[in-house]
Amino acid sequence: MTLPLVVAITGATGVIYGVELLRVLQDLGQPTHLILSEAAGANLAIETEYTLDQVRSLATVVYSNKDVGAAVASGSFRTRGMIVAPCTVKTLSAIANSFTFNLVTRAADVQLKEGRKLVLMVRETPLHKGHLDLMARAADCGAVILPPMPAFYHRPETILDLVHQSIGKALDQVGIEHELFRRWTGRAG
Asked: According to the annotation, is 158 in a ligand binding site?
């Protein structure tokens, strides 16, 4: 049995990371449990051509962010881990401080308490010391801080190439095989 991966999309700019993550996972046959924050829906309309229904259709199971009684709110419900893509600073702050006020933050807290992978694709720039302190605090609790920062060694040609490299790095953290970007194999010559 393949354990599901929890995917949360919050209201930071860069909702395409979450949408494309879901699309890739669907193509790979990986079951996903999706939580969309309320602000994610607004950003989806601003930043993409996707509708909420189209994004929901990419997931195996979809939960309301208000449903703190959902399966993913309990540690007894086994998952492969969780990726928050993108992750707002508000969500980062709640996770770093164990403030589980909605399903995104409760599901993230469950991953940490159960020793599962929690990958936070934090989207904010520039960062002040408070942001950095929150990242350090979340990392101290076991979260992987993975801001989507583009790499160029794989010679990206499109924005989607850059998105794939970032979500590929997130998938590496939860042990899901993919071929989203050309990996570094050393410098020739």
From this structure: no
